[in-house]
Amino acid sequence: MLTGMPSLSHSEQEQAADRIRQLMENGMSSGEAIATVAAEIRETHKGDRVTVIFDDEDE
């Protein structure tokens, strides 16, 4: 499985973590919060440089 995520600055990573925590505090499950923030990041950074992550199953 390939997952493309934009390269984020340290500050952007902290903001994403804060957003995930906020969603979880409002009752969202951790998995759903992570997926939501990941989708928001992908949408916000369309066309930016992307980091490709390989799942162990693809090696």
| Strand segment count | 2
The biggest beta sheet reads: 2 strands, antiparallel
Distance between the ends: 10 Å
The strand line-up of the biggest sheet is: 1-2
Helix and strand sequence: EHHE
What is the overall silhouette? globular
Proportion in β-strands: 15-25%
The gyration radius over C-alpha positions equals 13 Å
Mean model confidence by pLDDT: 79
Counted by DSSP, the helix tally is 2
Determine the structural class based on helices, strands and strand pairing: alpha+beta
Helical proportion, percent range? 40-55%
Number of domains: 1
Low-pLDDT residue intervals, each spanning 5 or more residues: none
Protein name: UPF0181 protein BV494_09385
Pfam families: UPF0181
Family: Belongs to the UPF0181 family.
Could you characterize the architecture of this molecule?
This is UPF0181 protein BV494_09385. Residues 11-21 have a biased composition (Basic and acidic residues). It comes from Rahnella sikkimica. Residues 1-21 are annotated as: Disordered. The longest helix is centred in the N-terminal third of the chain and has 16 residues, at 10-25. The model has no long low-confidence stretch (mean pLDDT 79). The protein has helices at 10-25, 30-44; strands at 2-6, 50-54. A two-stranded antiparallel sheet has the order 1-2. The chain is built from two helices and two strands, in the order βααβ. α1 (10-25) packs across α2. It has one domain. The protein is an alpha+beta fold.
